[in-house]
Structure formats: structure tokens, C-alpha cells
């Protein structure tokens, strides 16, 4: 016999076949379906509406399959409709909602999948979906504010790059013959020599450089899809000047909010740490949280291993330590997340505002260097005459 079936993993597929008294000779992932599932991207605003509407339907007593069908019919997005149709078919075959969502990583992130899994296991799926909708809306608002503030600096960067590239390729070469005598005499300034070499290199190998850059971008994107690549990228994000601390603070806030929400809904702390570790969205923090989980299973507190990792702010660790002693960890974690997000949002707004004058300054300096490199030999030739 041969055929296809829907399962969360190869092990689950083997278990299904064994339950039907079938001995599998070969079990492999259907390449077409895996590629299709990963190619569907849905906007955050649409997902926030789906989470909120699904929570409302379930809270009103509508069965899950019926709710997914209603949402599928109501949506006008073809991508979202295809994703919901696949999720509904998987749930109908017996797959849990979280596992069905996990098959669409470009539509549902780790936070949503983890929260849905916790809600399904803990009996508070409606509250989990409502919380995910709020998370998604907050992230989309932050993204919209950031992109709106970055629009002008990005415009300056693109225009500045094109202007400098045009100067080097089309304007600077016309001075080559003029400066040839000074070059033969060894009197050409070093900055002008460097400018002429850069212009000549771009003229000869510009196309090859663009192809090489495209190949490098493709290689890096492929590497970022591996576990080692994601781990390296998370480490580099946390080490970025200025932006690294903002990224780290947002990850810590996300972890605290998810952990506090799970604890408030009665999920045991070890299970809550396992889920919130995945929801942090950073593998460096996930390792630190994993070590904290091991300490808690041995009877220790949560705060010391988090402090020892060095990735959690001292004030956050102190608040967690006090909350553990007063048995108010669930509420304190949510308060910590609120405070971190407010402070980080203000820092991000300030940093983005500073980018505009910085980009103007960089563009002005680059153009000034080009002008000086062209004027110095002319001044030297004039003084010689």
C-alpha cells in the first residue's frame, strides 16, 4: 500500500500507520505540501482579526471546526483563506490546532503557536487567542511607527547611494586624463588615487560585484533558515550597537508577558517556562530560560539563574525575586513586560529620530570626500602653473 496522511511529524505518521496494523517501509515528507505550507504569508493585521474573531466564536459556543469554516468564508485574502482551509482540514483529521498552525510558519509565529498550545492544554483557548490578538496588534503598531519613522532615513540612504554610485561611474572617470600627468609624476594625492581606483573598479567589475552581492544575500538567507544560522543571527542582533539592547529588551518583555499570562491561567511553572521559552523569539534567551527551568525542577528559585545568564536586566531580576517571595509572580511579570515595552518604545522612537540627521551627515561627508579628492589635484596643478 502507498498513500499520504496528515501528521505533525514522521514519528506521529508511523504511530498512525501502526495503529492501522500497517508496517511502514518508508515514511517521508511530501515535498510539495511542505513547500506550499511554508510559502503562505499573511499580514499581521489580518492575523490579529482572525485571532480575535476566533476567540469570540469559541466563547459563544461555536465548535472549532465550524468557527474555522466561518472565518475561511469571511476572509477576502486568498492566502489567508488557503491557510485557514489547510488548518481546518488538519484539525478535522485529528491534529491539534497548535500543530496545524505550526505547519504554516510564515503565517503563525512561535508565540502564537505556543500560546494556542498552552490554551488548548490548559482549557483557556479563548483567553489565549484574545491575548495573541493583543500581542499581534501591539507588534504591528510598533512596526508601523518604526517603518514610518524610518521612511525618510531609508529614502536618504537610497538616494545617497545612487548619487555616489553615479558620481563614481559617470562623473569621476572624465577626470582621468586630466590627472594622468600628476599620476606619472607621483604627485597625485592619495585620496584622489583611491577615488580613481574605486571608480575604475566599479566600471570594470560593477556587474560582477552586483552578482556577487546577490549571491551572498541568497547564501545568508539560506543559512538563516538553519538552526546554527538562527542562533548566530540572534547573537549578532543582541550585539548590535544601540539596536541590540532594544531587541534584547523586547525579547525579555515578550517572555515575561507570556510567562505571566500562563501562570495567571493556572499553567504549572515548568510547563509555562517551556512554552514561554519558545515564545521569547531568541535562542540565546531560550537557553538561559532552559537552565532556569532545570534549576526550578531541582527546587531552586527562578531569579538567580536568570541573573547569572547576564541577559536579563538587574531591575527585572530583582522584581522577579521579590515576586517569588510574595507569591505574586504572575502579576509582577505582566507589569514588568508593560514597563519594559514602554521604556523600549521611547528609546526606539528617540533612536529612529536620530537616524535622519546621521544619514544626512554621512551623505554630506561622502560627497565632501569626493569633491575634495577631485579639487586637490586641480589646486596643485594651478599652483604649479
Q: What does this protein look like?
A:
Helices cover 78% and strands 0% of the residues. The chain has 385 residues and is mainly alpha-helical. The protein has two domains: 10-108, Type II secretion system (T2SS), domain F (Receptor-associated Protein, Up-down Bundle), CATH 1.20.81; 131-385, Receptor-associated Protein.
Question: Secondary-structure blueprint of this entry?
Answer:
Elements: H1 10-19, H2 31-38, H3 44-59, H4 64-74, H5 78-92, H6 97-102, H7 110-122, H8 125-171, H9 180-184, H10 190-223, H11 227-239, H12 243-264, H13 269-279, H14 283-297, H15 303-309, H16 314-326, H17 329-384
Helix pairs in contact: 3-4, 3-8, 4-5, 7-8, 7-13, 8-17, 10-17, 11-12, 12-13, 12-17, 13-14, 14-15, 15-16, 16-17
Strand content: under 5%
Number of domains: 2
Q: Main β-sheet, in a few words?
A: none
The whole-number mean of residue pLDDT values reads 82
Nearest-angstrom radius of gyration? 28 Å
Query: What is the architecture of the largest domain at the second tier of CATH?
Result: Up-down Bundle
Shape: elongated
The ordered H/E elements are HHHHHHHHHHHHHHHHH
Total number of helical segments?
A: 17
Uncertain segments are 32-39
CATH topology of the largest domain: Receptor-associated Protein
